[in-house]
Amino acid sequence: MAKVLVRYIFLEDATNIDPSRLMRHAARLQERFDYSELNNKNVPLAGTAQRNTIMAWSLAAEMYQGLGMTTDFFTGLHSSVTGKPLHPDVSFSIAHTRNMIVVAMSRSVTVGIDVETTYAFEQLPPQADIHQMLVQISGTADVTTWVAAEAVLKASENASVDNICDVSLTNGQARLGKKRFWCHAVSLPLGWCCQLATNEQEISVMLSEASAATLLAAPNELAFTS
Question: The domain spanning residue 203 has which CATH number?
């Protein structure tokens, strides 16, 4: 059975993050690859999206080494025609929102992951465009539909958010054009909805929580090998 490694960081108190260590990781990441979210000078380093991006990529690098890889994770990175980061040795996917960061990685199956708060669409009026779009996708306008559809888009190499209405979901199975995916619920702490999309139905999810303090400890030779 194919294995998928999923790790998450839940920042209960983001104020405990050492800014100097975060900046150090940002600099190390920028040395290794050019990623727009990290190099956007208009986004302050202290911003939530910027902070989460730095930590998510650091976590992905650590997970790659944890799979027994001896090369630098960032060396093999390239982009699809839609700008999606790809790696020749693993399939990986990154998601983050507010104070939750999730990364999925596998050596044997294609993965896509997304996360959102469970209350994200609680007050969504029926006449809203997004409500109608979600109903079109699965027949139900709820956060699970949105998160699952986003995960499917991430699992598809050349899809983008513009293709979300092309996703169809039925009983945990998804289709995007001619491609078929399966969606799996990932058990995160209460208040979070997380879906993992894969191109195989039978998988084993290895879920664990990562520590922000450990990840940002300096020097982090595990995540940043030469």
Answer: 3.90.470
